[in-house]
Design a protein that fits this description.
It comes from Teichococcus deserti. The protein has twelve helices and eleven strands. By secondary structure, the chain is α/β, with parallel strands linked by helices. The protein has two domains: 194 residues, D-Maltodextrin-Binding Protein, domain 2 (3-Layer(aba) Sandwich); 97 residues, Periplasmic binding protein-like II (D-Maltodextrin-Binding Protein, domain 2). It has a six-stranded mixed β-sheet with strand order 2-1-3-10-4-11, with helices on both faces. A five-stranded mixed β-sheet has the order 7-6-8-5-9. Helix 3 packs across helix 10.
Length: 325
């Protein structure tokens, strides 16, 4: 089922009387915003200011609940299986569409499928940035690639887990540059970034938001970015496209999803609330910009089309990676 058909199915369910009753006085209690990763990563950076803005719209508490595990599978599956009453939402990353395919590659039944979730709104869409410690000997991408070719498999890089967005981004680079690196998976972008800062790993593809403060403080160095254009806050950092790798382009997006059977009136209430928050809440916009992850809002229809196209592209990348033991 496509995203648009899933949304239509959810709408049809919402026409029934139970759906109408579900909206009366909604929300009548706090609404959870689930993040399937530990605190400090890209999803967390988006979720916290969005939750604060929604509290002002809903008039209810919107706690952010971190449910890490299995590279994002556990938290995402918990929302896919949650009661479809609109009181549990997911702030997901682009890995959401990758994980079911990675499970199939590993010979396991997926813990959830994309058909179980409805895209409600996109919040951010940031290219990843290649980071190394400030004390590393590599000052340019050419330096890094040359070192990797001289010592195949010796340079370590982290990710938020096997087949996570950060893993897929680096796999695009290693394939395009014909280099071999040693992958060290963590349970989220936050722990991976901490490992880079402590010297446990030597490189990382990171969302620009979590990376920016450490680059500004001089603790990390950015060598290149995966965007088609340079990123605000990283204006001196060239893109892989500029550096001769036109196929190396990747974005970490963050967006809100609800269980597919959520009644149409509640879906519409969520859509209206997020449109209001993203369009009118200056504190939300300032928080995202300060984190280096500016607002890139899309409504449900546009986001659904975006997710379909992005999932197809990332699924192909995961299939190229193949089985990871």
């Amino acid at each position: 089922m496509s995203r648009r058909r899933a949304l239509a199915a959810a709408g049809a369910m919402g026409l029934a009387a139970p759906g109408a009753r579900a909206q009366e006085g909604w929300p009548a209690r706090p609404v959870q915003m689930v993040v399937a990763f530990p605190p400090g990563g890209q999803a967390d950076v988006a979720a916290r200011p969005v939750a604060a803005a929604l509290e002002r719209v809903f008039g209810q508490a919107v706690p952010v609940v971190n449910r890490p595990g299995a590279g994002g599978i556990l938290g995402s599956a918990s929302v896919a299986r949650a009661a479809p009453d609109g009181h549990t939402a997911l702030m997901a990353l682009s890995s959401l569409g990758v994980l079911p395919e990675s499970e199939r590659i590993m010979g396991r039944a997926p813990a959830y499928t994309m058909e179980q979730l409805v895209p409600v709104a996109r919040i951010t869409a940031d290219p990843t940035v290649l980071l190394v410690p400030a004390g590393a000997p590599w000052r340019t991408l050419d330096d890094f690639v040359a070192a990797a070719r001289a010592r195949p498999g010796a340079i370590t890089y982290g990710s938020a887990g096997n087949y996570s967005t950060l893993h897929v981004a680096m796999a695009m680079l290693t394939g395009a540059a014909s280099i071999e690196l040693l992958h060290v998976p963590f349970q989220g972008g936050g722990p991976a970034l901490t490992a880079l800062l402590s010297g446990t790993i030597e490189a990382l593809a990171s969302g620009p938001g979590p990376a920016l403060p450490h680059v500004k403080e001089g603790r990390l160095r950015a060598l290149a970015c995966w965007g088609r254009e340079r990123i605000a806050g990283f204006e001196t950092v060239p893109t892989f496209v500029e550096l001769g790798h036109p196929e190396v382009e990747f974005y970490i997006w963050a967006g809100v999803f609800l269980p597919v059977a959520t009644p149409r009136p509640v879906l519409e209430r969520w859509g209206q609330a997020l449109r209001t928050a993203c369009g009118q809440d200056a504190a939300l916009r300032r928080a995202l910009e300060a984190a280096g992850s500016p607002l890139a809002y899309q409504d449900s229809e546009a986001f659904s089309a975006f997710v379909e196209a992005d999932t197809r592209r990332l699924t192909r990348a995961v299939q190229r990676i193949g089985r990871v033991e």
